[in-house]
UniProtKB/TrEMBL annotation:
UniProt-recorded name of the protein: AsmA-like protein
Region (Disordered): 557-601
Amino acid composition bias (Basic and acidic residues), ranges on this chain: 557-592
Source organism of this protein record: Mucilaginibacter pankratovii
Length: 601
């Protein structure tokens, strides 16, 4: 009943013919698999050798080919550099800057049109998948980007005699282990990445795309994802972590999240080195219109807009550090832009959103740590570049920011930096809004042993023009009801000095009661060579704040003398107390000794 369709003779003949055809097809497929598999392997080897001008060679352990499925599986693949060819190209000046090596256990090519490849020389592939490959990239500064090469043919021109077209819809590299070696410095810098995934879409190499600059490595888009990267500095004092890195070559957008540079505790740190201790965190960094192709070729950085969101930066001054005797010009931004980075770079716009900056310093006299901080910083920096042709058009970098000093007083600040001036000229101006002066006690009490007991800032304005050696400008500091306590190192008040300071040294108001003309100051500050940039800026402004508060050189000298006299008197009082205490103890001892002798008698 179930096989009624086989009752007729023609049905049986049809079935036999179909089975025979299927069997013949299977036999042909099996034969083709065994025949074409080594052919495919040889074809790949010769093509890699030819297209790389013999620089690269590829070895393949085994190849499995399935004609009917359109799938090829390659095992134990190794892409390596022919060092003899590389050294020859290096002598000829045609060696590339980047070298690549690859090892992978298995590569799967799916939905491949093998007949089209064999008869029409067109390689059409649906997907290529590499699982857990080991990739090594080495950067050697062999040539500049514009170095001419003898063979100026495109990749398609090099392979066109063997293949008319190469098309791959998707390429997946999963769980990649990447090692990057940079040979630009005195020592080889090695970076290793894990948890790296790459996806490339629409790879096309033909006559139409051979010079298509919108494609990266002939792909319409290459997406890279890196997760949970971490490293440690060579001295073990810093840990560096990144939560994720994502790059799309089509959108030219690079996103980095969870950046964290964390030092060891300050006691361990300062016992080992004399440098200042830095902490840095940022939630996300976004590179917009990032020219990755140029960076990959020559390490040149070109970004239209770089944005950093929700960051924290702290400097802890090393209390075990030696006094700097070298010129600290290297800390100036316009010096760093011009000299610190050897590679060419251009950042048209740098935006900082919701940042906080903290500075900490230990006063060895009080053994207490002072702190100043700026909260909720929003800034925009323009024209950060060392490119000569760009500097000819515009040689001024600008920075404008708003923040809250000690979390309270709103500060507006702007800088201009001359990027070509031999004297490293720059200028800055700013305005600090109303706030209680007592908010600065976390800095003044530990570092200056001065406590602000009352006072209100009305405004602080400054406008300064500087070079690496001198700063000149104006400072205006308006305030009211300023009162201070001068402290000992245990924070107890020095009554005499406090009275002197409040009565004769400082002015309690600016402008004074009954006066409409506020005190302002013209500043002229000569920078000591060992002063870094921000210390120079602060000391220049401070040299204007002092006369606005009525503190001149004569008052400072008088205050220092009185402080010295007070300290001397305090020391004398301590010696007198100690002497009286000793005399009392001696008297008590003699009386006890006398009673003891009388008792024996």
């Amino acid at each position: 009943m179930a096989f009624k369709f086989l009752q007729h003779r023609w049905q049986k003949i049809t079935l036999i013919v179909v089975l025979a055809l299927l069997g013949l097809t299977l036999i042909i497929a099996l034969f083709a698999n065994s025949y074409f598999a080594p052919k495919l392997s040889d074809k790949i080897k010769s093509q890699v050798l030819k297209s790389s001008d013999s620089l690269y060679r590829i070895d393949i352990g085994n190849t499995e080919l399935h004609i009917l499925k359109g799938q090829a599986t390659l095992y134990d693949i190794k892409l390596s550099v022919d060092t003899a060819v590389y050294n020859l190209k290096k002598k000829q000046g045609t060696a590339p800057n980047n070298l690549y090596e690859l090892q992978v256990k298995r590569l799967v090519v799916s939905h491949m049109q093998l007949l089209t490849l064999y008869f029409k020389k067109k390689l059409n592939v649906g997907r290529i998948t590499l699982n857990a490959p080991d990739v090594e990239v080495s950067y050697h500064p062999n040539q500049k980007p514009d170095t001419s090469k003898k063979d100026k043919r495109t990749l398609w021109q090099k392979i066109s005699n063997s293949l008319e077209l190469i098309k791959v819809d998707e390429i997946y590299l999963n769980d990649v282990k990447l090692k990057y070696k940079n040979y630009t410095g005195p020592k080889v810098a090695v970076s290793q990445l894990k948890e790296l995934n790459l996806k490339a879409t629409n790879l096309l190499i033909d006559s139409a795309t051979q010079k298509d600059t919108s494609r990266f490595l002939f792909c319409k888009d290459v997406r890279t994802e890196l997760y949970n990267y971490s490293s440690k500095s060579a001295d073990g004092l810093y840990n560096f972590k990144v939560r994720s890195v994502k790059l799309s070559t089509q959108t030219r957008r690079l996103i980095v999240t969870g950046v964290n540079l964390q030092p060891v505790d300050h006691v361990t740190f300062f016992n080992k080195v004399k440098d200042d201790r830095f902490t840095f965190r940022v939630d996300s960094v976004v590179f917009n219109r990032f020219d990755y192709m140029n960076y990959q070729k020559s390490q040149d950085l070109d970004v239209a807009r770089l944005a950093m969101y929700k960051g924290f930066f702290e400097v802890y001054s090393n209390y075990n550090g030696k006094l700097q005797t070298t010129d600290r010009l290297v800390t100036f931004p316009n010096w760093a832009i011009r000299n610190a980075v050897k590679a060419k770079f251009n950042i048209d716009t740098l935006d900082l959103k919701r940042f906080a900056v903290t500075y900490r310093q230990l006063n060895k006299k009080s053994m207490k740590t002072g702190m100043i901080f700026f909260d909720n910083i929003n800034a925009r920096l323009l024209n950060l570049t060392n490119g000569k042709e760009l500097l000819q058009k515009n040689n001024i970098a600008t920075a404008g920011l708003t923040s809250y000093f000690m979390g309270k007083g709103k500060l507006n600040l702007s800088f201009n930096f001359n990027l070509t001036d031999p004297a490293y000229g720059y200028s800055y101006k700013g305005h600090l809004g109303p706030m209680d002066i007592a908010e600065v006690n976390p800095a003044t009490m530990p570092l200056s042993l001065v406590k602000i007991t009352s006072g209100r800032v009305k405004s602080l304005d400054f406008n300064v023009h500087s070079t690496q050696k001198t700063s000149t400008g104006t400072v205006s500091f308006l305030y009211s009801n300023l009162q201070v306590d001068v402290l000992r190192k245990d924070y107890t008040k020095k009554s005499v000095i406090t009275t002197l300071a409040n009565a004769f040294i400082i002015k309690h108001d600016n402008p004074d009661d009954g006066s409409n003309a506020p005190r302002s100051a013209k500043v002229a500050f000569i920078r000591p060579a060992n002063f870094p940039f921000f210390k120079t800026v602060w000391q220049t402004i401070l040299s204007g704040i002092k006369p606005c508060a009525g503190v001149g050189k004569a008052q400072e000298e008088k205050f220092k003398k009185q402080s010295a006299d007070d300290a001397k008197k305090e020391q004398e009082d301590l010696l007198k107390d100690a002497k009286k205490k000793k005399e009392a103890e001696d008297k008590k001892f003699k009386e006890a000794l006398k009673k003891k002798k009388e008792g024996k008698g």
